[in-house]
Structure to design on (321 residues):
């Protein structure tokens, strides 16, 4: 398959994660031809040129080269290390947010294009202004999804969020946009705790959260979410995909592998890389009806370090009958 795409609709926004180290091997890079789109506005908030949106088409050659790197990393960390990272996960994320505050992940403005339910809500509200909706971000971090959504839409009656990092919730609540009349956020561990006694949302989001949880707990967590959500609601999922730059980078470094497709970064944060098929199986087994599933293939270059990153993100929408 020719990796060039003659036309492609812009469907994504800025990268989810800032990676400061690592390289893609030259053969891998040469087999990917980039498709360039200029952004509407030329400058960012720091008055520097905006990084244009660039996509690449994933094909069998790219997959084989990525698998070659990943499969060469055969050594997993010992069980006591695995258990240590599992036990200290919340402390590690507290440290992460204490260091980065709200400066690591970018606001997720792309959600307006990726979640058609938002437009449905808007149309319903325009027809009847008393029609209001509830959203809940599970694993909300410091509010990179909640604040942009509430700012751009007037039809949310309540905006809920929870995260297992107390530090993240503290940073979120300190945000000047946090209005206690609309927002409610609390500490909750998706694995260990019952889900909060919030009003059940019309729309739930699970964005780059499941990848930070041990794979043996994935199905249990998704089932817990399914049971918690109300009939007629939709869950939007987005996370890291197999063969992502991050996975290849961690495989090259060695001594980062916890299980197949599950790694630990230098700061102790863990990350799992999903296939589309795996995501479909998880959510449908838990009881959800899959509305759609797709992967985003995005090229990003760190201007400062000149590191070239070929990202893979998986996203899906799931309906509870």
């Amino acid at each position: 398959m020719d990796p060039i795409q003659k036309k492609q609709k812009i469907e994504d926004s800025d990268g989810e994660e800032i990676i400061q180290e690592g390289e893609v091997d030259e053969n891998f890079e040469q087999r990917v031809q980039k498709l360039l789109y200029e952004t509407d506005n030329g400058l960012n908030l720091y008055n520097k040129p905006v990084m244009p949106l660039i996509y690449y088409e994933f094909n069998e050659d790219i997959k084989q080269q990525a698998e070659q790197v990943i499969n060469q990393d055969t050594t997993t960390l010992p069980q006591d290390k695995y258990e240590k990272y599992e036990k200290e996960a919340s402390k590690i994320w507290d440290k992460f947010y204490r260091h980065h505050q709200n400066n690591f992940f970018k606001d997720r403005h792309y959600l307006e294009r990726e979640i058609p339910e938002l437009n449905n809500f808007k149309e319903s509200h325009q027809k009847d202004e008393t029609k209001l909706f509830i959203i809940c971000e599970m694993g909300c971090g410091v509010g990179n999804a909640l604040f942009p959504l509430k700012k751009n839409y007037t039809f949310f009656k309540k905006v809920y969020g929870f995260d297992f990092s107390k530090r993240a919730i503290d940073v979120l609540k300190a945000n000047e946009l946090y209005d206690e009349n609309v927002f409610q956020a609390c500490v909750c561990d998706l694995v260990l705790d019952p889900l909060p006694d919030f009003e059940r949302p019309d729309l739930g989001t699970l964005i780059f959260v499941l990848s930070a949880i041990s794979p043996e707990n994935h199905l249990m967590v998704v089932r817990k979410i399914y049971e918690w959500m109300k009939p007629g609601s939709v869950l939007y999922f987005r996370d890291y995909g197999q063969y992502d730059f991050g996975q290849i980078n961690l495989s090259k470094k060695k001594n980062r592998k916890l299980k197949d497709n599950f790694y630990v970064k230098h700061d102790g944060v863990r990350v799992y890389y999903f296939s589309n098929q795996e995501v479909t199986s998880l959510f449908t087994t838990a009881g959800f009806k899959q509305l759609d599933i797709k992967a985003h293939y995005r090229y990003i270059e760190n201007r400062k370090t000149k590191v070239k990153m070929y990202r893979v993100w998986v996203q899906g929408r799931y309906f509870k009958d």
Summary: The chain has eleven helices and twelve strands.
